[in-house]
Specification:
By secondary structure, the protein is of the alpha+beta class. The protein has a twelve-stranded mixed β-sheet. The chain has a five-stranded mixed β-sheet with strand order 2-8-7-4-5, with no helix packed on it. It has a three-stranded antiparallel β-sheet with strand order 1-3-6, with no helix packed on it. Helix 2 packs across helix 4. The chain is elongated and about 85 Å long.
């Protein structure tokens, strides 16, 4: 009986040791490396960075001065605002004081001022632009769909007067002639197939939409948009500078939260634009065969109507 009790007692001690060692091993287990979201790269000054870690109950410490963090560094408790170029490094420490590997990401905030000042210079000599275009309207919800329009655009600026026309000749591979003309604060749409002209008045507040990348100076853009510079990219073999812009006017921002432009600064024109709409739809605009400051056709901003044409005002 005494021997039996001894075996039972020894078994309990072994079980206790196994449980204790398992707990210690759990504390000493590898701690997951923190994740920084979004990942590093070029960003706008309004960027905020979140840090998460997959290890339960781990405490995160971080630095923003390039130094390796320790458990004496700043404890993470809320997203980190980024207003200038910075490198964020982070570690996670579990309850057993085991430290993870270091996570690191650099966020580069670029100054758009030099781009805008260059646009100020090109705007002084801008008179006109002719370009072929492709407008891809993309919808992802509820059913993915893309509509493609092709045609020719014209832009002209004389002093403070600006006008623009888009002559659509094809939609989704089919001939569908339509003419949009913006001038004097109103848009006229001529749909030849139904022989109707629709006029939309009092749209001068939307002129900055039509001028995007074609004749607008940096000062023009700064008046209407919050601007973020996202660096250089090559479009069709041409070096461009990428801008991301948010309308300052709440009424416009409600429908158009964001626009991205790829601008050829040597000519002061857009090669590509993406307009993001509140509905979730977005439009990608490509411009090619571009001619700057050349004579425009006499009918660039007009269209031919007849006695049967229906005129609608909205």
């Amino acid at each position: 009986m005494h021997l039996r009790r001894t075996f039972v007692f020894a078994g309990l001690i072994a079980l206790f040791l196994i449980t204790t060692l398992a707990a210690v091993a759990a504390d000493e287990a590898a701690v997951a490396t923190p994740e920084l979201s979004p990942a590093g790269g070029v960003c706008c000054s309004t960027q905020t960075v979140k840090i998460i870690d997959a290890t339960p109950n781990a405490t995160i410490y971080y630095t923003t001065n390039g130094e390796t963090p320790t458990n004496s560094s700043t404890k993470y408790s809320a997203p980190i605002p980024v207003s200038k170029t910075v490198t964020i490094k982070a570690i996670a420490v579990n309850t057993g004081r085991v430290t993870s590997a270091v996570a690191s990401a650099t966020y580069t905030v670029l100054d758009p001022d030099w781009v805008l000042r260059k646009l100020d210079q090109t705007a002084k000599t801008f008179r006109s632009t002719t370009a072929d275009f492709e407008f891809d309207s993309v919808e992802t919800d509820p059913i993915p769909e893309k509509d493609v329009q092709k045609g020719t655009v014209y832009y002209e600026r004389k002093g403070n007067a600006f006008q623009m026309a888009a002559h659509i000749r094809e939609e989704d591979g089919k001939p569908v002639p339509k003419d949009y003309v913006y001038s004097g604060g109103e848009v006229k749409l001529y749909e030849k197939l139904i022989n109707q002209v629709t006029t939309l008045s009092k749209l001068s507040q939307y002129e900055s939409w039509f001028m995007l990348g074609f004749g607008a100076s940096g000062k023009d853009l700064e008046q209407k948009w919050e601007i973020c510079y996202l660096g250089s990219e090559t479009v069709d073999g041409v070096k461009t500078e990428k801008l991301e812009m948010v309308p300052k006017d709440p009424a416009i921002r409600k429908n158009l939260p964001k626009v991205q432009l790829w601008i050829d600064l040597d000519r002061g024109i857009s090669l590509k634009q993406i307009l993001y709409f509140a509905s979730g739809q977005y439009k990608v605009c490509f411009y090619f065969n571009i001619k700057v400051n050349q004579a425009l056709p006499a009918d660039a901003f007009t269209f031919k109507t007849d006695k049967q044409t229906v005129f609608v005002n909205r």
